[in-house]
From TrEMBL:
<feature type="compositionally biased region" description="Polar residues">
    <location>
        <begin position="226"/>
        <end position="241"/>
    </location>
</feature>
<dbReference type="InterPro" id="IPR056937">
    <property type="entry name" value="YqbQ/XkdQ"/>
</dbReference>
<feature type="domain" description="YqbQ/XkdQ">
    <location>
        <begin position="36"/>
        <end position="342"/>
    </location>
</feature>
<feature type="region of interest" description="Disordered">
    <location>
        <begin position="216"/>
        <end position="241"/>
    </location>
</feature>
<protein>
    <submittedName>
        <fullName>Late control protein D</fullName>
    </submittedName>
</protein>
<dbReference type="Pfam" id="PF24032">
    <property type="entry name" value="YQBQ"/>
</dbReference>
Amino acid sequence: MDKATTFQISRRGNPERWNVLPILKTTPQLEVDTGFAAGTLTFDLIEVQDWFTPQNGDEVRFSWNGVKVFFGHIFKVSYSGDEVFGVTAYDNMRYLKNQDSIIWPAGTASQRFETMCKATGIPYRVVTRSSYKLPAKVADGETYFDMIKADIDDTATATGKRYFIRDNDGTVEFLAMPSSKSNIIVGDKSLLTDWKYDASIDDAANVVKVVKKSKKDKGKTTATASESSSGDDPANTMLTTKSASGSTVSKWGMLQVVEKVNDDKMNAAAMQQKAKDILREKNKEERTLKLTALGTTDLRAGDSCYIKVQSLTDIGIGPRQVNITKLTHKFDPKNWTMDLEVSI
C-alpha cells in the first residue's frame, strides 16, 4: 500500500524533529513547476494541546514509499475553529524570489545562477552548464527568478537549447531540459486516467521587428520641439529596424511583436539575426497536454516520458516523448494520483 514513510517538522537548525504523521488530517499535495516557481507542499494537521505547533520558518521533510520527495520551509500557517492547522511549505527555490540590483558582466546563464544562489545562501548544483555567453546587463530591483528566467529565455532564443531549475531535496539545480529521458509510457493502458489537450496562438508571433532607437544629432537639443508620448523628440530621433516574418501569416493573419535593443553597437546583420531567432521561438502554436495518471515517483518535473493515447493519435498527435513542465502529486494512500502538464 502506498503511504507516507516520513513526515517531520523541526525548528530551523534544531536537530529535534516532530513526527506529524499521527496528526495528518488531509492528503498532502505537492506541486512542482519548471516555470520558475518554488515547489509547494500543502497539508493540514490536527492541533494537539501541549505538544506541537507549526511555525513559519520550520523545516519540513516528507518521504513517500521511502523516497524523499520534499524538503523545505513553512511560509504560511492558518488555524481554524475546528482546531486544524493549514500549512504551506516551499522548497529552497522560494528564496530566489529575493530581489536585488546587480550589474551583470558578460557570462553564461549557469554562471549567473551560481552567483544568485551564493547570494541567497542556498545549496546549489550545476548539473549541466550552459555555454552561450550573454551580454552584460543591469538588473535593477528584480527577483532572482526574473533574472534567471530572462537569461534562460535569451539562451533558448539564441541557441534553441532550453534549461531550467528545480529543487532536489534542498539543493537547487540548474539542468538541461529534459533532465532525464524515461521509458515510462503514460497512455490508455498505462497509468493514464484522464487528459485534456489545448492548442493556442494567443502568445504566438509570425512577424518580429527589432528596433534600435538613436538620436540623429547627439549633440543637438531643441527646447521648442514637441515630444512624443515616450518623451523623445520626434525631430531628433531615428529608428533603425530589421524584421523577419514566417509562413504562418497567411494562415493566422499578421501577429507582430517588437523587440527593442539598447546596444548602439549592434549592426544591421546582428539585428536581422535577432529577429530570426525570436521568430523561431514564437512562430508556433503553444500546445499543452494535461494528464491525470496513477502516481509514481519515477517521473519528475523536467523529465521526459512517452505518451500513447489513441484519441490523440486520431488528431495527428501520435506516440512520442514529451517534456514534463509541471507535476502535482496528491498523496492519498487509497488513491495516489498525479497531474502532469507536458509540452508537445
